[in-house]
């Protein structure tokens, strides 16, 4: 009951208070608006008056400029010496150009002959080439044309057929002239074009165009000051951009082209009045606003708190707490809205899945705190890269999703993806470590791929898998062939899991012999899989699937156990087993290796595990610790495929491998590349200097084997000596290579 009364009282108070406060505020607002309008109108009227005065003063100065020309333009001698038959440039220079500069300060004077061509040009009294007046004459061409036309129209015809020029009428000026504005040395200038006319009446047989004198005065500081005084304004200046300067007048040349502005300090009488009453108005408004605020504060405080609490709850429900990005629910809601309102005119809709490569390794090696910081940094980078109308969300763990609406083409989506990859090429500095975190990205497009949210998300996920399968650190758009690949992958993964569980995988062995190829010293275990339905499947196909589906550790242990069990029959031979980088980095690798050796009662010194340089991709120090533990168990370590990594020598220096296996690409080049033999000898000498056994794998021809016999290589391995064989054929291979049967390989010289 109390709560009901309180709510009713609050509503009644609001019903009375708000209208009264509204009326008061409306009255004050109307008064302030009326005063501001009146002030503004007074300012505008004053500004228009100042502009009119300035325009009138400018026109008067232009007429004075024409008046100054009159002395040299309305003159029989000028009329005589400016005509083609009696043209005298020296006379014109002394009596026109120099005279106008010396007496009136004309900055430039140009004389145009009766044919309309410039014959004289002077700048500040100094004669200059007429070509330099081209820009000026182009600007004032309309003035010259009108002055010449007025002169021609002034001819009168006598009954005899002769024409005569009447003396110009008396007045402020007696000349036929046109005035305007132009540019001189980057500044506005006043210009006048006056027809050169005789002082007295002249009789001519035909009408002819006059010569014209054109002169100008630049509006420099002194002339602007004089013009301002005549106009009754202050602060007159020439500017290029009137932005922020309401008191301005545009200047245009005779061709109506913009050449600048004249700006001045406006009087603003209305603003002056307003500034006087402004403090009082401000005080009144502030007082009323303060009282209103106090009243409204208490009545609305609880409502505001409730709204804020609701907003926080809503935000938390729709956003990820770690990154502040939208969460899966918000993303799905935005996705449904975009699809519901999609039309062809809106363009394509891009659906993008983003995954951080090898994020689990960061968590395993640096801890979850570092992993969280990587997620936050990735979110910050993505947030600044995506367009404003896009929806970016964290879906789970290290996975993000991006919705790109209104894309005009697929290339637009590719531009966004490229910016992402470029930004993530810069390492992150996390916990004192520089981490290179790359992105794998998959994308689908509506309507090309579907207009169903579920289908678009599924196809974007398929494209993401394709990008990861292609080497990570790249993007892929969904293609129809990817679905078949996914189905094949799932089928292979299921069959592989079943084959491991039922021991349906075979292990074969390829011998490693002495340098002369006559004695088998060790064998390398190689995995083979023949499915009853799919037939023989290459390790290059099923090993990557095992890594992606988490089967690689089980697969590696399967090979290790089978090899140790089979090798028990050959106690005189060593055993080499390949270990994948994923299996090697598994937290239980050392324990699994020790348990396998104990279960099979296998001598550790007979076992050699082979690793590639890719095992060092993330954290060298941790990997080196594991390798050291392996050696301490008595197991030997070989560096496989040496020579194809970018930092092979640094690994050899930091860790004492027992064996160095030369990559088969160096062996294949022995018979075709001119420097292959020297490179091979250098690698073998390097291994010998570091105290390592050197194995050359991939021997395919007799010639390759013969070349290697001339080096210090320790062992040979390849199809020429023996293909991978089942365990039952090891004894036969030893006999064949030693020459005890007729199929021995003839390597000895």
Structure overview:
This protein is an alpha+beta fold. A hairpin with a 5-residue loop joins strand 11 and strand 12 (258-265). Strands 20, 21, 22, 23, 24, 25, 26, 27 and 28 form a 9-stranded mixed β-sheet that branches. Helices cover 49% and strands 21% of the residues. The radius of gyration is 48 Å and the shape is elongated. Helix 8 (359-366) runs antiparallel to helix 9 and helix 14 runs parallel beside helix 16.
Highlighted features:
single chain, 749 residues, alpha+beta, 9-stranded mixed β-sheet, 6-stranded antiparallel β-sheet, 22 helices, 21% strand, elongated, disordered N terminus
Strand content of the residues, in percent? 15-25%
The radius of gyration computed from the alpha-carbon positions, rounded to a whole number of angstroms, is 48 Å
Helical proportion?
Answer: 40-55%
Counting DSSP E segments of at least 2 residues, the number of strands comes to 28
Q: Label the structural class.
A: alpha+beta
Number of contiguous helices: 22
- The separation of the N and C termini measures 113 Å
Average pLDDT for all residues: 84
Backbone shape: elongated
What does the main sheet amount to?
A: 9 strands, mixed
Low-confidence stretches: 1-6, 742-746
């Amino acid at each position: 009951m109390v709560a009901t009364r309180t709510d009713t009282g609050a509503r009644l108070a609001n019903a009375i208070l708000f209208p009264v406060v509204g009326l008061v505020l409306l009255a004050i607002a109307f008064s302030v608006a009326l005063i501001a309008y009146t002030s503004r109108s007074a300012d505008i009227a004053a500004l228009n008056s100042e502009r009119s005065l300035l325009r009138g003063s400018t026109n008067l100065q232009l007429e004075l400029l024409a008046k100054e020309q009159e002395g040299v333009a309305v003159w029989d001698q000028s009329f005589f010496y400016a005509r083609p038959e009696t043209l005298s440039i020296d006379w014109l220079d002394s009596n026109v150009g120099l005279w106008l500069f010396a007496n009136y300060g004309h900055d430039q004077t140009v004389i145009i002959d009766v044919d309309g061509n410039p014959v004289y040009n002077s700048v500040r009294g100094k004669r200059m080439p007429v070509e330099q007046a081209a820009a000026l004459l182009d600007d004032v061409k309309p003035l010259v044309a009108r002055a010449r036309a007025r002169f021609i129209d002034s001819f009168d015809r006598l009954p005899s057929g002769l024409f005569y020029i009447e003396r110009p009428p008396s007045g402020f000026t007696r000349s036929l002239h046109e005035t305007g504005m132009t540019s001189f040395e980057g500044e506005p200038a006043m210009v006048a074009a006056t027809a050169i006319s005789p002082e007295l009446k002249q009789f001519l047989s035909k009408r002819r165009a006059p010569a014209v004198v054109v002169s100008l005065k630049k509006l420099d500081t002194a002339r602007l000051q004089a013009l301002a005084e005549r106009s009754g304004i202050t602060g007159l200046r020439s500017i290029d951009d009137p932005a922020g300067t309401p008191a301005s007048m545009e200047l245009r040349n005779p061709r109506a082209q913009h050449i600048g502005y004249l700006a001045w300090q406006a009087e603003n009488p209305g603003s002056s009045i307003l500034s006087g009453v402004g403090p009082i108005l401000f005080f009144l408004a502030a007082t009323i606003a303060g009282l209103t605020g106090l009243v409204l504060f208490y009545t609305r405080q609880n409502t505001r708190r409730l709204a804020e609490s609701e907003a926080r709850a809503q935000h938390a429900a729709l956003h990820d707490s770690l990154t502040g990005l939208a969460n899966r629910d918000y993303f799905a809601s935005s996705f449904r809205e975009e699809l519901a309102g999609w039309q062809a005119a809106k363009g394509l809709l891009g659906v993008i899945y983003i995954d951080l490569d090898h994020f689990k390794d960061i968590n395993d090696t640096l801890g979850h705190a570092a992993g969280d910081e990587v997620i936050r940094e990735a979110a910050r980078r993505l947030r600044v890269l995506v367009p404003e109308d896009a929806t970016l969300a964290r879906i789970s763990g290290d996975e993000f999703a991006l919705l790109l609406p209104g894309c005009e083409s697929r290339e637009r989506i590719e531009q966004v993806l490229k910016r992402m990859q470029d930004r993530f090429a810069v390492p992150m500095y996390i916990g004192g470590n520089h981490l290179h975190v790359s992105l794998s990205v998959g994308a689908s497009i509506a309507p090309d791929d579907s207009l169903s949210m579920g289908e678009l998300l599924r196809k974007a996920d398929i494209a993401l898998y394709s990008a990861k399968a292609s080497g990570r650190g790249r993007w892929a758009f969904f293609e129809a062939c990817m679905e078949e690949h996914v189905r094949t992958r799932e089928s292979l993964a299921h069959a592989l899991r079943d084959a491991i569980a039922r021991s349906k995988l075979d292990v074969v062995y390829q011998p490693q012999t002495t340098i002369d190829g006559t004695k088998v010293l060790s064998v390398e275990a190689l995995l083979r899989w023949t499915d009853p339905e799919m037939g023989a499947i290459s390790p290059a196909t099923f090993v990557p699937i095992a890594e992606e589906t988490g089967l690689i550790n089980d697969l590696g242990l399967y090979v290790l156990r089978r090899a140790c069990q089979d090798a028990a029959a050959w106690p005189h031979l060593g055993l080499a087993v390949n270990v994948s980088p994923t299996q090697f980095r598994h937290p239980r690798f050392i324990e699994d290796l020790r348990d396998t050796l104990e279960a099979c009662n296998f001598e550790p010194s007979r076992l050699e595990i082979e690793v590639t340089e890719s095992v060092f991709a993330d954290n060298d120090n941790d990997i080196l610790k594991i390798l050291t533990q392996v050696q301490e168990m008595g197991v030997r370590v070989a560096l496989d495929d040496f020579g194809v990594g970018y930092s092979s020598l640094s690994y050899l220096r930091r860790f004492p491998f027992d064996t160095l296996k030369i990559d088969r690409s160096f062996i294949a080049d022995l018979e075709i590349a001119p420097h292959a033999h020297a490179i091979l000898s250098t690698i073998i000498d390097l291994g010998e200097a570091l105290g390592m056994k050197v194995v050359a794998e991939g021997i395919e021809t007799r010639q390759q084997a013969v070349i290697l016999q001339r080096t210090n290589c320790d062992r040979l391995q390849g199809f020429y000596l023996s293909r991978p064989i089942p365990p039952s054929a090891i004894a036969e291979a030893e006999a064949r290579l030693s020459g005890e049967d007729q199929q021995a390989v003839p390597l000895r010289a």
